[in-house]
Specification:
The protein is mainly α. It has helices at residues 5-17, 22-28, 36-48, 69-84, 89-99, 104-124; strands at residues 52-57, 60-65. The protein is elongated and about 55 Å long.
Length: 125
């Protein structure tokens, strides 16, 4: 299940803050800030989707992420690869390296990452 753009914006703030009350979230938004009722509605939807939970503190709720940022974006990338690159990570990597303006240094860093991953997989056999 995925988040809408508005929900994702709130999720990013929760990942950044780790936990937050409504006022904390509103303070993080750039101007013009959304109405508190809008943020509350979005948080309710995110709770229903299983992305966020809360701890009751008197009359207030302290919200926190249930889904890790890395897990969310990993699922996002997996869906992107499946839907746009015929489930081929090689096609995705080819597109990524050809269509982005990576510097030679960034490409070398990427090659080092791939080489290290290959070496670690070979030692596990």
């Amino acid at each position: 299940m995925h988040l809408t753009n508005a929900e994702e914006q709130i999720m990013k703030l929760l990942w950044k803050l780790d936990k937050a009350f409504i006022r904390d979230l509103l303070n993080e938004f750039p101007d013009p800030k959304p109405a508190p009722t809008t943020v509350i509605t979005l948080l309710k939807r995110m709770i229903d989707k299983g992305f966020v939970s809360y701890r009751q503190c008197g009359n207030s709720r302290e919200y926190y992420p249930v889904v890790k940022k890395s897990d969310y974006f990993s699922d996002h990338i997996d869906g992107l690869i499946k839907n746009f690159f015929n489930n081929s990570t090689a096609q995705f990597a080819s597109f990524f390296t050809n269509e982005t303006d990576m510097s030679p240094q960034e490409l070398e860093e990427l090659r080092d990452i791939v080489d290290k991953k290959i070496a670690s997989k070979k030692t596990k056999k």
